[in-house]
Amino acid sequence: MSNRSPNRWLSKTAVNGALVLAVVYMLFPLVWLLTAATKDAGGLLAGDAFSFEGFDLGGNLSRIAAYNDGIYFRWYANSLLYAGLGALACSLISVAAGYAFHVYDFRGKEKLFGLVLLGVLVPTTALALPMYLLASEVGIVNTYWAVLIPVLVNPFGVYLSRVFCAGYIPDEALEAARIDGAGEMRVFWSIGLRMVMPGFVTVFLFQFTAVWNNFFLPLVMLSDQKLYPLSLGLYAWNSNAHAEPDYYPLVVTGSLLAVVPLVIAFVSLQRHWKAGLTAGSVK
């Protein structure tokens, strides 16, 4: 008994120590971003980004708002449009497809699902050029649709949705709804979608993060700066910073503001995630 206590204490210490190191490793860039956003160009180039000496966050925000008629916030609105609308529509399509794969039997079902799994293995960057050629044929290059349409399809979201449907939607509930006279769309919308809401939120968060951080697709599709998302706009500013150091505070402060929607999305949807899990288990 006496030997178990020291071993248990050492195990807990090792686990807690590893967790602390992991937290420090993940929070270190955010802490640097918080402090560096308060510096002017001279403070950043001097290498004292971790101190709050020469606090100038308000000045940096004012310069971002004033630069080029506030184009940064145009980029911000574009990113919210691409990520918000794109992730919402993609999540609904993915859940509907996963629901269909789980509930219905049709010819070639597993072969078609195999193609979906094959799509998971293909990197999105490899599809950027073919999608550009298709968009050029249709005539939507350098428009909002050139970025929105490709993000509506997510093979991994379809796979994940089928897994969630298999775990959270009992066949008995669907049969009971059909016996009561509900149509297939009503069954999906009122029962299937509600029961698999944790999967919907999961796919939404994954896709929102992916689209918000998306860089290569907008780089290929867009040439008009007014259509840029934040990732591409900040890249353009950072490219200019090598020649004009005054861009450095704009890039760092803009990067700090770009993190805010991701934090809000994860914090606000976490409650719905847990509530959905509980509701699914009760049903």
Notes on the protein architecture:
By secondary structure, the chain is an all-alpha fold. It has helices at 4-36, 41-46, 57-66, 71-103, 109-121, 124-138, 145-148, 155-168, 171-179, 184-195, 197-212, 216-221, 230-241, 247-282. The model is unreliable at 278-283 (pLDDT under 50).
Count of the separate structural domains: 2
Structural class: mainly alpha
End-to-end separation in angstroms reads: 45 Å
- Average pLDDT for all residues: 86
Global outline:
globular
Entry keywords:
mainly alpha; 2 domains; MetI-like fold; 77% helix; 283 residues
In short:
The protein is mainly α. The protein contains 14 helices and no strands.
How would the blueprint of this fold be written?
Blueprint: H1 4-36, H2 41-46, H3 57-66, H4 71-103, H5 109-121, H6 124-138, H7 145-148, H8 155-168, H9 171-179, H10 184-195, H11 197-212, H12 216-221, H13 230-241, H14 247-282
Helix pairs in contact: 1-14, 3-14, 4-8, 4-11, 4-13, 5-8, 8-11, 9-10, 11-14, 13-14
